[in-house]
Specification:
This protein is an alpha/beta fold and 297 residues long. The chain has helices at 32-44, 60-71, 117-126, 137-141, 145-156, 176-187, 197-204, 209-219, 256-269, 274-288; strands at 4-9, 13-18, 25-30, 48-56, 79-81, 89-94, 100-105, 132-136, 161-165, 192-196, 223-227, 233-235, 240-242. The radius of gyration is 18 Å and the shape is globular.
Length: 297
């Protein structure tokens, strides 16, 4: 029997990435919280049951997604199957530095409806049985305003550990101000915040890791990890930077932050010191960015 129970909330989509040929695309499945859940389960193995909380359709591609999640070792019992719906899709393009650019088709995806109705309330109630809940700003942004409030209210009364990546995507919010208000409400759950300088510049016009850490601690965070790419990460509780691996030439940065989050969270669950957990996270992220796509096998 697994020692820990972890729920990851969000949306997993069909991912199309360039192949070695300029005329074909590679099909996969990815999404920020799924990427994290995948690496989290891979690292923890039988030490933890990792459940994915979402909704899909009843079409063949949704069923293929369910099979992919199960192949990753994830518990899919908390994924709703909605008749007549399907999953979102996105296309990845990379520039010469490996930085990714996304085109999305997700406005009518099933995941947006995961917490609606009595079954949705049942999912919220089940979160109390977990030791850890992981989610992102995207998890909140895809929901209706009412469902986002219901999720935050459920987590405010939750006794376990909340881990949260703001993962700000402007196209999913009416404004940065709206996003900030919702994300700050979520962090009142005493969450561990795992953010980036890029997101914090866009959300709050903050430009240093120390400013970011101070901001989120004031909102109620129990700790803050600020990811800074090749510069490493800053851990608020240690007041120090953990350097990234030097000399890494990225091919595709898709999933780098998600893999970092999964590895760091796994380290914390296994009671590694935060500095050591971050070093392990840097190593996996360095491997991920040397491959195409968010998930490496």
């Amino acid at each position: 029997m697994s020692e820990y129970s972890i729920a990851c909330i969000g949306e997993c989509m069909l991912e199309l990435t360039p192949s070695d040929s300029e005329t074909t695309l590679r099909k996969g499945f990815a999404g920020d919280t799924f990427n994290t859940a995948h690496y989290l389960k891979r690292i923890l193995g039988q030490e933890a049951a990792v459940s994915y909380v979402s909704a899909v359709g009843d079409d063949p591609i949704s069923l293929e997604l369910i099979a992919r999640l199960q192949l990753s070792g994830l518990d899919t019992q908390w994924i709703r199957r909605l008749s007549g719906k399907t999953i979102g899709l996105y296309l990845v393009d990379n520039d010469k530095d490996g930085e990714r650019h996304f085109t999305y088709w997700r406005s009518d995806s099933a995941a947006r409806l995961m917490f609606q109705g009595p079954e949705g309330q049942g999912l919220l109630d089940q979160l109390n049985s977990c030791d850890v809940v992981y989610l992102s700003g995207i998890s909140l942004a895809i929901l209706t305003a009412q469902d986002s409030v219901r999720l935050i209210e459920a987590l405010l009364s939750y006794d376990g550990l909340v881990v949260f990546d703001p993962n700000y995507r402007p196209s999913l919010w009416a404004s940065a101000e709206e996003a900030s208000l919702v994300l700050r409400d979520l962090v009142k759950t005493r969450a561990i915040v795992m953010t980036t300088l890029e997101d914090e510049k866009a959300l709050h016009n903050l430009t240093t890791a120390e400013e970011v850490a101070s901001f989120w601690l004031e909102q109620g965070a129990r700790d803050v990890v600020v990811k800074m790419g090749s510069l490493g990460c800053y851990i608020a509780s240690l007041k120090t930077i953990v350097p990234a691996l030097p000399g890494i030439e990225p091919i595709d940065t898709t999933g780098a932050g998600d893999s970092f989050n999964g590895t760091y969270l796994a380290g914390i669950i296994l009671q590694l010191p935060p500095y050591d957990a971050a070093r392990e996270a840097h190593m996996l992220a360095a491997d991920v960015i040397r491959h195409r796509g968010a998930i490496i096998e």
